[in-house]
Amino acid sequence: MAVSHGGGFAAGSGAVGKFPTGANYAEALQHPEVCFRDPGLKHGTVQQTPVLGPKAISGNFASVFSVTAPDGQRYALKCFTRDSTSLTRRYTAISSALGALSHAWSVGFEFLDEGVLVAGEWYPVVKMAWVQGTDLLNWLDRNRTDTAAVQALADRFLALVADLDKAGIAHGDLQHGNILVASDGTLRLVDYDGMYVPALKGEKATENGHRNYQSPSRTAADFGPAMDRFSAWVIQLSLLAVAADPGLWTQLHDPHGEFLILSEADFTEPAMSLAWPVLLGHPDERVRAVATRVKNLLGKPCAALPALTPDAVALPKRRSAWGKGQAAAKGGSGAAAQASATAPPTASGPLAHGVPAWMTGHIPAAAAPAAGGTAGQAAGSTAGQAGPGPAGQPAPGFGRRRAGDLVVAASSLLGNAAPGALALAAVQPYGYLPMTQGLALAVSGAAIGLGRRLRPEYRAAKARVRELHLRARELKDPATAHQRLEKDIRKLDESVAKDNAASDKRLQALTTELKDGQARITVDLNRSTGRIQKQLTELSAKEARRIAYALAPAVQAHIQERLRKTSIQEARKLTNMGDKMVRALMDAGIRTAADFTGVAFAQQGGAYLVGTSGQWIRVPGIGEARANTLESWRRGLEQRARATAPTKVPPGVMANIQIEMATLRNQLNAELKQVEAGAQRSRDALKNRIADERQRLTAARQRRGMESQRQRAELIQRQKRLAGAEAELARVRTDLATARAETRRTLGTRRYVKLLATGR
Amino acid sequence: MRLPPCRFAQRIQGRQLPYTAEISRTNPGCFIFLVDQSASMSDPMTSGEVSPQRAEVVSDAINRLLTELSVKCAKEEGVRDYFHVAVIGYGHNHVGSAFQGALAGRDLVPLSEVANNPARVQSRTKKVPDGAGGLVETSVQFPVWMDPVTNGGTPMTRALGYADSLVANWVEAHPGGFPPIVLNLTDGESTDGDPTSAAIGLASHATADGAVLLFNLHVSGSGGTPVTFPDSEEGLPDTYARLLFQMSSVLPSHMRSYAASQGHRVSETTRGFVYNADIVNIVEFLDIGTRATELR
């Protein structure tokens, strides 16, 4: 029996690999004067929590405490809770490798072999200068809308990775918690436990890194200069994506999640991921390109991953200018704050140059009216901005006659003719004719007027006149108009932020729904397969039972045969028996061992033998002792007979049993396949349902983004025009007059009647 | 009785190995401690005069486990809710929360609340080695969430049933999470019938990551050598110990590796059972964030 004896770690005595726990260290550090040898630490102050004593920051392998030495220098003290036998050797190698070079990202440390005394034993610690900084996750959370800062950080990270690569060093656990951003925006790496330096070549990894940053295929054997590659790509993609579109952070990062925008499940089951489609289908070309590269790393062995280099993530053409405006407008809640400070993207300004390829065609003035449900509005305002007769607008005047126009024409004709016709038919007196004719004319006039107003050309022209009118009013009081536009922009940003927040929340809910739904399917599947597999393993026992059952008659016959062949005379030599007893037995009809099956005792005393048909046989002279002797004699005979009984079932019967078992086995295996296929179907159905809704959400978000950006650009444009208010007012008034005249001239009643009459 | 080994078809459709689910704030774990508070727990551990009460040993273990969990899950900004924790006492006709102080009466409590709300912080004097061969007397702050209570019978079956309902709700709400861990601390003599079927029922709840883990700490006056994580009942001193061993789950493979790395001899049938020894180290068996390493 493999048992280990002994109680807690306290025994100390070099029990292999047993390190103190985090709480053990926390307790020891209540008395720095006792537990430390290093003078700075011994007289230092350990940071405390309000309730639990020394404040720990724990990972899986160590707890870190903050100790401030009397000279004011603050240290991070790393105390190990899981043993790595090679700790000292590794840290020595890492220390000399890092010491030889000076890296901006590296933090100096000292490995103290006898660092801390816990329950009478010395344990090593790593003493590191305390780094003031924010971990990458919190930094991104706070700075995500500062696109330039995120981009700068991405560049810094790229440089850091290149630096590590050049030195042949790998960190081993690149993740948000080990990458700190100092107040000046520079990066520091902490936690060197799993670091590879050239001197450690041939060793194995002691840890595999954070699950949300590592390739599923990474193993301890992948310890080497290339082991950071997957995590480096994942981090770089996250930074680039957030720099391009801060909204991706709110869409893909879970506020409590220990990952940036991608997590373990996105690597192990990319087909079920909700994040990949968002990244791979993102409007930003670079996000798409880098996401594609990272996704392609998933199937590859760790050793075959490409290095992350500036060239690898650079787009050959057109990348820089696509700047703040877009990102801020698309961003979630942060956008509103930035809104008014951002340079207004205008038709003639930076937008025209800075606009990414996918945006052209969606921005007013740059092209035809926007697609989608807002076409009418878009057309109206486009006209308003672009001035009279922009290229691509249809020529003024009515287009072709439509069905509605024909109805108008018919009714006005009929209306006019009706009174005369009625008078001719003498249905009404002639005296009423002028009155009815007047009424009919009015009706026809109204019909024509209505028909004209229903024409799209007329409505578009009217909208344009209204627009110009509004602008003229605005220009008369530019200050108020400016404020009003400011308010409109704010309202627009707020409503976009609100819509985006709601859609982000729904997206998070979908992610949870997918995860939980999959888990429930797996739970059910495990239960079913467990049950079936149990039945499968029980099949052999079942087979044995069936064989025994089939053998039973033959075995029974064999035993009977043997018992019959054993004369009762043989009982003579048993203890306490003898000739007299045998004779009495024979007189009672018991001639062979087969003639009785056992013994029975009456309640009021007296022993009997049980006959073959169950009858009790009284044999004179046979009491309890002799009865028992006879019974055990008979049992012994039976046992010996059983040992020589046939063990083979006749081939035909055996074949039947085997067929039966095979059928059962096949049935169970089929059932197994069936439940697994069923689970797969459920999984697919769930995924499709969630993916569809996610797709709708993302599409709606993009549409909202483009539409609000267009509206925003327009509002800003109008705001800008307010600057030269007087000249503009004059211009707008001229435009307005022209537009009105034009409308009268080209879309007047006379023209409409002509259209009705001639069709042109 | 043997609890059936967990049969989780491995690696079907990209499914993970069991007991590898992430423990995080979005995927919290669940710890349920069952504490025997029966009258027999007032007996001393051994016949010696200075030997502590079993109940003291057990409440000490609970308080240390809670401290250990809190430290394990502490980060820069404080203790994170990587776990929800219940401490359920069972004794004198009563099965329910054994928390004292601010948490009294509550079942599953998020870990950060546990960490911030011990009933009190006790100051204990302790003689510790000074590293130079001598001893120094120091006072140590020791947070306390529950005091020893001893009263009446040992309704272990009901206690397991209580855990069963907590666990059932938990796995329903966290179908993909790390399976709940139930740790029963007792002197072993159930007074409300054989707890076996209640234990089987409890351990039959499962998330996608595996079945509920039921571990037992047996504090006993029967003597014999302390045993940690045995793989067979041979050598266990009495029927209670054997019963508790049989009720205990087999350690998942990565926990087995950690047990091995702490110097315990383990095999594939090693169970989460400890006889008269320390179980607080079990907190070190939990992986948070990082993927389990293939220790040998």
Write out key terms for the chains shown.
heterodimer; A: alpha+beta; Phosphorylase Kinase, domain 1; Transferase(Phosphotransferase), domain 1; six-stranded antiparallel sheet; three-stranded antiparallel sheet; B: 296 residues; alpha/beta; Rossmann fold
Q: Which fold name fills CATH's third level, the topology of chain B?
A: Rossmann fold
Distance between the termini of chain A: 104 Å
What is the CATH topology of the domain at 134-320 in chain A? Transferase(Phosphotransferase), domain 1
Number of strands of chain B: 14
The biggest sheet of chain A amounts to: 6 strands, antiparallel
Under CATH, the homologous superfamily of chain B reads von Willebrand factor, type A domain
Give the H and E element order of chain B.
EHEEEEEHEEHEHEEEEHHE
Beta-strand percentage range of chain A:
5-15%
What gross morphology of chain B would you assign? globular
Walk me through the structure.
The complex is a heterodimer of chains A (760) and B (296). Chain A is an alpha+beta fold and 760 residues long. Among the domains of chain A are: 16-129, Phosphorylase Kinase, domain 1 (2-Layer Sandwich); 134-320, Transferase(Phosphotransferase), domain 1, CATH 1.10.510.10. Chain A has helices at residues 22-28, 32-35, 39-42, 87-100, 136-143, 147-167, 229-244, 247-252, 264-268, 275-280, 285-297, 310-313, 324-330, 334-339, 350-354, 375-386, 403-424, 433-454, 456-476, 478-537, 539-565, 579-587, 624-643, 651-721, 725-747, 749-758; strands spanning 45-46, 48-49, 53-54, 56-58, 62-68, 74-80, 109-118, 121-129, 134-135, 179-181, 187-189, 596-601, 607-611, 616-617. In chain A, the strands form 4 sheets. In chain A, strands 1, 4, 5, 6, 7 and 8 form a 6-stranded antiparallel β-sheet that branches. In chain A, 36% of the residues are buried. Mean pLDDT of chain A is 81; it is low at 1-16 and 319-394. The relative contact order of chain B is 0.18. Chain B has one domain (24-285): von Willebrand factor, type A domain (Rossmann fold, 3-Layer(aba) Sandwich), CATH 3.40.50.410. In chain B, helix 3 packs parallel to helix 4. Helices cover 23% and strands 23% of the residues of chain B. Chain B is globular, with a radius of gyration of 19 Å. Chain B has 296 residues and is an alpha/beta fold.
